[in-house]
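Summary of Year 1 activities. Much of the first year was spent building the evaluation harness for sequence design. The harness presents a backbone, in tokenized form, and records the residue chosen at every position. We chose the following record to illustrate the format because it has been used consistently in internal testing since the harness was completed.
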């Protein structure tokens, strides 16, 4: 059985409730999420769900926790999942995200990373552009899912950079990991 866990770093944005609802509205309900409260403590109220586990991460005085550091801390605690998917607390995933991802995992079992295209409503931008067959810097984001073994066994971790998503994907590409760019938009930025 394929277990997919969404890693969600949160700084307590009010959009978190929308993010969690996008998970709860999946057409395939077989998922888990690890919500990592990054130095905040907020009540998720009506969004409580047995599939959502909450982890608290303290901030060190004078230090900033980059989202990548928070994601790494979350993945460090999850040893059971076979795949990690990522969503930020101001973004949403489409209701078919899980359905599409599981189908892709079945059809392309050798693939290590699946990248969904992202859509930003305010700018009407879809990244990577539909005509692209590969990802480029500043044209890809956290709209991907990766095998957990890349993190736990091979040491692929996020670095604390402004381009941390691209950086991780590019290091995996350089290491000849199998990355597949999906044709579907599965992720909405600042939705």
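For this record, the design step produced the sequence shown next.
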């Amino acid at each position: 059985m394929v277990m997919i866990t969404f890693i969600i770093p949160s700084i307590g944005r009010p959009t978190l409730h929308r993010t969690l609802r996008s998970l709860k509205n999946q057409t395939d309900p077989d998922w888990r999420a690890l919500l990592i409260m990054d130095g905040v403590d907020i009540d998720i109220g009506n969004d409580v769900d047995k599939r959502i586990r909450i982890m608290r991460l303290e901030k060190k005085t004078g230090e900033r926790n980059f989202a990548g550091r928070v994601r790494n801390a979350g993945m460090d605690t999850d040893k059971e999942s076979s795949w990690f998917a990522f969503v930020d607390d101001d973004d949403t995933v489409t209701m078919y995200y899980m359905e599409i991802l599981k189908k892709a995992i079945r059809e392309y079992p050798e693939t290590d990373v699946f990248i969904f295209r992202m859509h930003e409503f305010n700018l009407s931008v879809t990244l990577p552009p539909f005509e692209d067959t590969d990802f480029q810097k500043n044209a890809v984001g956290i709209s991907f899912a990766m095998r957990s073994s890349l993190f736990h066994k091979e040491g692929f971790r996020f670095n604390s950079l402004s381009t941390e998503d691209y950086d991780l994907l590019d290091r995996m590409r350089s290491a000849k990991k199998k990355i597949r760019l999906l044709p579907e938009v599965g992720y909405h930025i600042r939705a």
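The helical segments are 16-24, 67-77, 97-107, 148-152, 164-174. Quantitative recovery figures across the full test set are reported in Table 2.
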